[in-house]
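=== Structural record ===
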Amino acid sequence: MLSMIYLLLHLLTTTTCSGGSPAYTPPDHILHNCGGASKQDSNGRNWTSDAYYPECLLPDEPDISVTYKGKAVAAGNASIPDVPYSSVHIFVNKCTRSYAVSPGPKFIRLHFSPKTHYSVPGFSQQPEDSFFSVNANEYTLMANFSAFLTLSDASVVEKEYIVNVDANRLDITFTPSPNSFAFVNGIQIVSIPTGYYIGGEAAGVDDNPIKWVPGNNNYFIFNNTALETLYRLDVGGPKVFPVNDTGMDRTWYSDDNYVTGLGYFTPPLDVNITYTSYTPAYSAPEIVYTTARTIANDSNVVNWTFPVDSGFLYLFRLYFCEFAIEIDSGNERVFSVDIANITADSRTDVFLLAGGSKIPIFRDYLVNVPDMDGRRNKQNVSFAIRPNMATRPVWANALLNGLEIFKLNDTQGSMAVGPNLELPVQISGKKAVLDNIAF
């Protein structure tokens, strides 16, 4: 009876829309092919040349940077996408790219091809020699960063950040380290719905609360907080390309490299998802909500492991949708969520939380990864779902459809850890991809 009352209240207080609703249309959608011509990439997106952004180029640009135009082919690897990696801006001194944008939260995506050897007259250094810092307005995105050392098993590197813009301009500043240089192949700036990842000045009034782990206290991310995207996973499903996202050009990756337990994935079901005002259609593509990992018959848990930098707070956003045909009421699938070996939620019942079947929801958790030696080294953080049989549910099972993990800036407004000199982390014999690659 209580579950029916909850369902009726939920349906009365939300506005539903079908999965075919139009995707989010961002007010700002900048795809800057740095130094190159206007072209389409392999995903059909239109990248535009420097001529479209005259306000971001300084009058003394020739004295500060050089531009390379040519075919980007890495040594021993010809698979580098043409756009935006066949041209580059190279900075031998500090330089700021300034873009006219509307106020509000933005995705900033920086694209690097650190295996490409550039033939620039009068310039002999190559990407393996490059170390630099990047700032976006008042936030430090990276410091003494080496795109070359960041590579794992891919040919290109994409770094994604979320920054709120108060005024009508976003400044991205590249600062070479001493005796080095900075470079960038492509810059993306894409608007984000207000309040979705970060709230406004009044965050906490209508926003979804973020639960501290451990404990029951709530946390709210205000618009003076910046985030770095570390992982965005279509759990149990395939890679979802930016053109198949909901308007924000996000890439959702398979979670295969991070699963360490015996759980298995659930094949996608052809069901209609009912979005709500709490979980709008732009939250995630339908494929994310209609694929999942659940518990295998010979296991009682699904485990994942994620390398992160110590000394920061991390936002874990969990995406759920109870789409199993056999589950049509509450207390049929109840499970716990563990983050960093701590129980974040002991009784997760997706049907009751969402107010019914095939209704997506997401839940946020905040965890601190302490820096024990002051070096901010890589540290593995565990994540797990396991059945909770305390309420005697019908099924001894658990469910996860999607997952995002973000790093929050520290008290100095920085998300940087200094030179990236650590080798890629090995997880159960699989190489962990530490950076999101959009192609």
Remarks:
- The first strand starts at residue 29 and ends at 33.
- Helices lie at 2-12, 61-64, 147-150, 286-289, 350-354.
- The longest helix spans residues 2-12.
